[in-house]
Amino acid sequence: MTKRKKFGISKTLTNSLSQTVKVASNxxxxxxxxxxxxxxxxxxxxxxxxFLIQKDDIISGLEHNDYLYDKxxxxxxxLESLKNSIIKQGILNPVWIYKYKTHYRLIMGxxxxxxxxxxxxxxxxxxxxxSRPLDTSLRLxxxxxxxxxxxxxxxxxxxxxxxxxxxxxxxxxxxxVNATFIKNLLGCSLPHAMNYFAVVFCSQDLRDSIQxxxxxxxxxxxxxANINDKDVFKEVYTLCISGASLKHLQAMIRTKKLxxxxxxxxxxxxxKGANFKTINLGFCKSSDVIKKITDILLKDNLCAEHxxxxxxxxxxxxxxxxxxxKSFIAKLEVQK
Length: 336
Prior knowledge:
Blueprint: H1 11-26, E1 31-37, E2 41-42, H2 55-59, H3 69-78, H4 80-89, E3 95-100, E4 103-108, H5 110-118, E5 123-129, H6 135-146, H7 154-171, H8 179-186, H9 190-200, H10 204-211, H11 218-225, H12 230-241, H13 246-266, H14 287-297, H15 301-304, H16 318-335
Parallel strand pairs: 2-4, 3-5
Antiparallel strand pairs: 1-5, 3-4
Helix pairs in contact: 4-5, 6-7, 8-9, 9-11, 12-13
């Protein structure tokens, strides 16, 4: 069974984030613990882990004519275990919020807020910041919490990464975003960062499929993102959403590339990415074989006109043979 890959934030960024919170708490007094009424807490509309269910769905109950009823019902059911834990033990880890107008806005703890409502609680233990954190700190905090969830979809993961990138680009406009940047950001391997990089910046059609849940495997999504041929993409995509394995998709792409290369050679052309100006005829170690080929060629009237290329040739000297053939071919090309 394949082990689930684990990701985190790089140690440097984690330490930096922790230091930011520590300074805010010790020197500026902006971080405090409070028991806050849940009805004063708004869920963050930009949190990439946001549920379909909202506070009102729990307070007032789901409406059966809601076209999202089944999905919301499943989301509420998924909070059952956490609700029971809160009833028995309370909130073990405070949620994070910040002052927002006359209310508060949630930074981390969406599931705990919703499960507390399900448990019948009207207030919750919270860490309170007086103002909204910088975009990068906010997104990193949310990413840290989201990593604790085992059911994050691929769409939620790449949305997390997109938000962190956008936040850092606002703070550092000349930021260079590449696979190495993502590797350092997430603390994952370079190959995995390359997959994330390909998917984060993939085409809109592929993004729509990921968002719609048709593709939820990073490696498969990256494979599709790196296909430039539209026809090949369609074939691989169709197989992908029908449940084909990663190995099957990789094998199909290799076959397509080989077929494309073969057809290009047969047409006298070259596959995309290269524009060869010469044709390699291969190598031969036997001067006797070359002599036989030469004799056959010189029987052709057009070739016979250039027989002088081989006059007085030492057929034991491979260097002389190579020079003679180069001269012979050059004259044929001019004649053509």
